[in-house]
Amino acid sequence: MDPKTAMYVAQGIHGLAYGMILFLIASGLNIIFGMMGILNLAHTAFFMLSAYFCYQFITWTGSYWMALLLAPIATAFFGILLEKFVLRKMHAIGHLSELIVTVGVGMVVLAAVKIFWGTESLPVKIPEALTGLVYIAGLEYPIYRLFIIALALLVLMFMSLLLYKTRLGKIVQAAVSDADMVNALGINIPLVFMTVFGVGTWLAGVAGVAIAPILTVFPGLDGQVGMDAFMVVVTGGFGSLMGAFIVSIIFGLLNSYGVQFFSSLAPVLMFAFMALVLIIRPLGLFGVRE
Amino acid sequence: MNNKKNYWLFWTGLIIGLIVYPKVVGIYYTNFFVTFAIFSVFSVSYNFLLGFTGLFSFGHAMFFGTGGYGVALALTHLKGISVITALGIGLLAAAVLALVLCPIVVRVTGTAFAMLHLAFGQLMYVLALKLRTITGGEDGVGGFPLPPINLGWLAINLKDSANFYYFALVVLGLSLWVMWFFTKTPFGQIQRGVRDNAKRIDYLGFKVPQTKAVIYVISGAFAGVAGAVYALFQNLISADGGYSVIVSFTPIINVMVGGLASFFGPIWGTAILQIITEITTRYTDRVELVSGLILISIIMFAPLGFMGFFHSLKRRWTYPHPFKAKTEEAS
Predict the structure, then answer these.
(1) What's the number of domains chain A is made of?
(2) Taking CB atoms and an 8 Å cutoff, what residues of chain A touch B55?
């Protein structure tokens, strides 16, 4: 294969990997919004927090795999605390107040991160097993990017199984359409909400660990990646996992090919795409919920 | 009668207080007040959408930034232009942007409205960063000339901070008054009707999308005025200072803290948050932590904002206040 095609394929892999990370964050946001109607603006702060946890666990245990296992769980724990002690009390007041509270939580998390870890960017090493390149059909691929894609697909599969094949998934689906009625049928809705919020932040956590070796860990991480993820949710449609998946891939590819072809205007492409979609379909590509 | 006397006494006192303010407190607090006034007008213009019409936007910064860039570019490129004309250009730029957008945005409500604004706001932000030849990229447009205002018999040099204070006070006070006046007109009544029950307003024969469009343009224009004064005040407008998401969030937070049901709520919110930031900056460099925690506790424990909190106190103790009739009318 000639070098030009090889370059395109390599860019495609990079774009896909980035898109998959966006998808991990976006799916968490999506599940929380679809279920509870909360636009959780602290979500990206949790994503950043998880990247810091990843750094910390690697410093303690020396193993990336332990960090991959533990950091998202620790992040989810903080998410559950937020849901239980803050958001649950806010539910009666209204969605706008909930949204502003999550802005406040995001600020607090950012400040806390700066207090504990400082403002420098902290390097995270790619684990031994995932460094280097792999050769398929005469082309070379960076293993770590492929690993991210595989990880995201695994999580997607796990999520779809959870949502569509388990009892919890059925309860969640029912609660999306009418939470009060499900509650009246004797199901502990607050507990379900807490679980969903935990799973949502766990997804952000997985994304945080996945991105830590690529971008290093620094306090602006949430703004840089978070905004893109937020746009994915908006463009794909709130509450739609499928929409988030498709738009993440589109955004990832737009990002990597955009940088290659018109470098300075690459970010404009994504916003223009988003504006265009929203003009035609105000609720996003697959949006159903107002 | 007594109420009316108190009312005049209050306004006379307020105006005298505002006139002598820069002479008493010195340059630092004069500038502090100018910043407060700018963001008050910005927040009130935002509340015009959120509190009075029920339209929740994530991208009000685009009008603020456009006003700022409008005035900055006018003063940079047009020779011999007066500050007032440049201010007019800033206002017009924001109003034109609102006019261009309103056919798209007035058809939608709720989440879709908010998201559409997020998209356009971010688009403007990125464009301001990337169209380097016009906007100067990350550096923004700065160091433009600030010609004195010539009133015929005297020329006001705006580089003096006290003079700028009076200039800003007049411009922003006028903007506030116009918006306040607007909410008192029959059109303002329709505006609140659209918020409470758009369908009924439609049945009554008023045109809902057109009403929204007019409100949208007015709100955008005054956000543009705030941005223009901000650009003049800083002698700089940049993408981060004018268009970033944080600028969009400032009025939302001010409105929520102050209370979105009343006209004067956002002004209180701006004052409260700015004073908190000022005090925390003095004692600690963890401003984000403190303001984040305060924001959370205000929203959790006073969900109707300062004005709501104030009214509940008033109801409890029937506290006499010169503003009683006014604020209740506004809410």
Answers:
(1) 1
(2) none
Single pTM value for the model: 0.84
Cβ of B303 within 8 Å of Cβ of A97? The answer is: yes
ipTM of the complex model:
0.79
Residue A289 domain-assigned (yes or no): no
Contact between A103 and B249 using a beta-carbon 8 Å cutoff: yes
Check: CB of residue B273 under 8 Å from CB of residue B253. Answer: yes
> Does the pLDDT at position A288 exceed 70?
no
Q: Are B76 and A238 in contact (CB under 8 A)?
A: no
Residue A288 domain-assigned (yes or no): no
- A81 Cβ partners below 8 Å, 6+ apart? none
User: Is residue A290 in a domain?
Assistant: no
Q: Angle CA(A109)–CA(A112)–CA(A113) in degrees, nearest 5?
A: 85
pLDDT in tens, B176-233: 999 999 888 888 888 888 888 888 888 988 888 888 899 999 999 999 999 999 999 9
Q: Please list every residue in chain A whose beta carbon sits closer than 8 Å to the beta carbon of residue B245.
A: 227
Tracing tokens 């008493």 back to the chain, one arrives at B24
Question: B141-142 and B236-237 as β-strands: parallel, antiparallel, unpaired?
Answer: antiparallel
Mean per-residue pLDDT, A22-40: 84
Domain ranges, residue A89: 3-280
